[in-house]
Design brief:
two-stranded antiparallel ribbon; six-stranded parallel sheet; 9% strand; 350 residues
Length: 350
């Protein structure tokens, strides 16, 4: 891996900036229209965070312009994976932990926090272990009953920021051993979630790192960088092997599914690239909609005079990537549609 490529990868997963929150924070209340007993508990990073990182760009314009129409803590122009999975389960999006209150959130809790990982990757953000600690504390406080947990689903989605943190160490030659330790800890977390009472768990595979807009600049956004996608492929291969063993250990009464985000990204990008070639007015999926003048995430930033440091594509609803690493609502919707068959395993035994 060349020095230039390593530097690019470092920029790929730049941790979310800690800008001051502008405007009124979106209120996530208690939902009363949950007609079944299913709850969704979410652990992970910005791909599934729906509002926990209060002091971030996700609470600045233009985030949220598609849904709900203003910044609301999602790292996208609209809905993210959590929203679609909740919809699949026929429940409202679970309340972000930052907005919990004294009442029981009827659809579950989202503990995910942008910029975090399985290990400690964010100075002020809770990694997955800390997120599970918060979950356990709610259980100890009797916020949720044993019956609540038995009928619930856990979504686990993190690892990208862990690879950023690892690359920063410069120990690239040890990446395979790092992957092993990362997945070992991830599986410890999954077992802990199960031991706390949840019998249905969905684990997201790692996205194709070589397809992120800052990376594909080296190909003029014509193709993903296969060399970096090998990192994701190896991670997913090892994870799948370990999940298979975990299933055997836990037995048939526990449902553990993997969500192939990797191939869902690749398939969606390939389809959109084909359409783009046939109709140049459609957006190239390897380009981001909200972009600045550098490889850093300038989306949502303004200078000292209030001038925007970013520009927007004409039609966000035609994009795949919203900013340097996060899919747009259109992108997540396309990915979600390819994950539905796996998600079905979570409801067949309800």
């Amino acid at each position: 891996m060349t020095k230039q490529l390593v530097i690019t990868l470092l920029l790929l997963f730049t941790l979310i900036t800690t800008d001051v929150v502008e405007g009124t924070k979106k209120t996530y209340g208690v939902y009363n229209n949950n007609n079944n007993n299913v709850k969704l508990f979410v652990f992970g990073d910005s791909y599934v965070d729906t509002g926990n990182f209060l002091n971030s760009s996700s609470y600045k314009t233009p985030y949220g312009i598609t849904f709900p129409g203003k910044p609301a803590g999602r790292f996208s122009d609209g809905r993210v994976l959590t929203d679609y999975i909740a919809s699949f389960l026929k429940i409202e999006t679970p309340t972000p932990y930052s907005f919990r209150n004294s009442s029981t959130p009827q659809s579950g809790i989202n503990f995910a926090y942008g910029g975090t990982g399985v290990f400690l990757t964010h100075v002020n953000g809770p990694n997955m272990t800390v997120q599970i600690d918060s979950f356990e504390n709610l259980i100890k406080q009797n916020v949720y009953t044993k019956q609540d947990l038995q009928s619930s689903v856990a979504l686990v989605s993190a690892s990208g920021n862990d690879y950023l943190a690892f690359i920063k160490t410069g120990n690239i030659t040890e990446i395979k051993s790092f992957t092993t330790s990362l997945i070992n800890q991830l599986l410890i977390n999954v077992k802990r979630i199960h031991n706390l009472g949840i019998n249905k768990i969905a684990i997201g595979l790692l996205e194709p790192l070589g397809c992120m807009p800052p990376i594909t600049q080296v190909t003029f956004h014509l193709s993903c960088v296969d060399l970096l996608n090998l990192v994701s492929e190896n991670h997913n291969k090892v994870l799948l092997q370990n999940v298979l063993q975990l299933k055997q250990q836990l037995g048939k009464s526990v449902v553990v599914v993997t969500l192939d985000v990797y191939n869902a990204f690749l398939s969606t990008i390939a389809t959109m690239q084909k359409n783009h070639k046939e109709n140049s007015t459609l957006m190239n999926p390897l380009e981001m909609c909200c972009k600045g003048d550098s490889l850093e995430n300038s989306c949502g930033r303004v200078d000292d005079k209030g001038k925007k440091k970013y520009s927007l594509c004409e039609n966000p609803e035609l994009s795949f990537f919203w900013d340097i690493v996060h899919p747009s609502q259109n992108g997540w919707n396309a990915v979600y549609k390819q994950l539905q068959s796996s998600l079905g395993q979570l409801i067949d035994k309800n």
